[in-house]
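A reminder from the course coordinator: this example appears on the midterm review sheet, so study it carefully.

Given structure:
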């Protein structure tokens, strides 16, 4: 199981290089295909994270996301904080699985091939704030793991009670939980909260606890039977428009050559360094797990630093 899962993870990692990390508003985006790569044989995906992989969770729990989100691919709001598909959508496409239904959406959901527990604004550590105060989701990573535990138990219960096949067709197959791919993309909001509330020294000191809690979540999934993990590090948060939106006349050296806030990107790199170190430890501790660490930071920064050659424009150039 472990060797096959690692092989599939390698195929998926190659496919990452063939698709945009966020959907770009072009017709070419719709025609991107990884059909020349062999599909991985995971029967389902269970995703945990924040807005980078939320396919409708925060929209289902609170006010629906409005246009112009979704305009470039879905041609309507589709629960994503993007103009089109997210990376988790491309992963599902490559695995020839449907886009993930969100756990929190009670209408029209189909969980036969997995579920999405991610919500925009989610953190690894619980925050003592409400979404109405600061946009922080109440569904932190530990809550998402608890939701999955409930989801798995309820699935097995309903499967046993089902009388005919029609009652099972939108349910996961209980035996496939251990064969599914478990994806995690979270941590960016923890840093964003830290930048607002802490000094850089305080935030750096908090990173080990954030990593500890992330590690505990992965271990809990493993104890529940998960074996194949696909883990993203955090992206160059200092390149987000919010990082420099209110920055006026920055001093020399504050921004890099691409307009990104150096101090925030440096913190993201430190977070990623500690995350990668912990993942190496988890590989040793969780003997039957196949854990793939994906350097999303490098991929996103590569796109940002080569925006012109990628036919992308910087956000401040958008009217």
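Designed residues:
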């Amino acid at each position: 199981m472990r060797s096959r899962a690692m092989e599939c993870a390698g195929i998926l990692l190659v496919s990452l290089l063939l698709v945009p990390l966020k959907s770009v508003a072009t017709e070419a985006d719709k025609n991107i295909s990884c059909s020349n790569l062999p599909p991985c044989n995971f029967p389902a995906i269970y995703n945990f994270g924040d807005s980078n992989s939320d396919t409708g969770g925060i929209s289902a729990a609170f006010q629906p996301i409005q246009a112009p989100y979704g305009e470039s691919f879905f041609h309507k709001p589709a629960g994503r904080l993007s103009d089109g598909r997210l990376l988790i959508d491309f992963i599902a496409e490559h695995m020839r699985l449907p886009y993930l239904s969100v756990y929190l959406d009670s209408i029209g959901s189909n969980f036969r091939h997995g579920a999405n527990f991610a919500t925009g604004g989610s953190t690894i550590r619980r925050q003592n704030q409400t979404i109405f105060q600061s946009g922080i989701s109440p569904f932190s990573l530990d809550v998402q793991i608890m939701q999955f535990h409930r989801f798995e138990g309820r699935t097995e219960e309903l499967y046993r009670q089902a009388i005919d096949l029609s009652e099972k067709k939108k349910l996961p197959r209980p035996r496939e939980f251990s064969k599914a791919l478990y994806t995690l993309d979270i941590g960016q909001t923890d840093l964003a909260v830290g930048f607002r509330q802490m000094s850089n020294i305080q935030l750096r000191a908090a990173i080990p606890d954030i990593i500890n809690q992330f590690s505990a979540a992965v271990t809990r999934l493993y104890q529940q039977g998960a074996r194949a993990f696909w883990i993203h590090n955090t992206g160059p948060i200092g390149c987000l428009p919010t990082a420099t939106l209110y920055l006026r006349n920055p001093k020399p050296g504050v921004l890099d050559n691409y307009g990104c806030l150096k101090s925030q990107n440096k913190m993201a790199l430190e977070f990623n360094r500690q995350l990668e170190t912990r993942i190496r430890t988890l590989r040793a501790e969780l003997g039957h797990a196949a854990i793939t660490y994906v350097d999303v930071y490098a991929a996103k920064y590569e796109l940002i630093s080569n925006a012109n050659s990628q036919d992308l424009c910087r956000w401040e150039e958008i009217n």
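The beta strands are 45-49, 114-116, 181-185, 228-232, 290-294. The first helix runs from residue 2 to 16.
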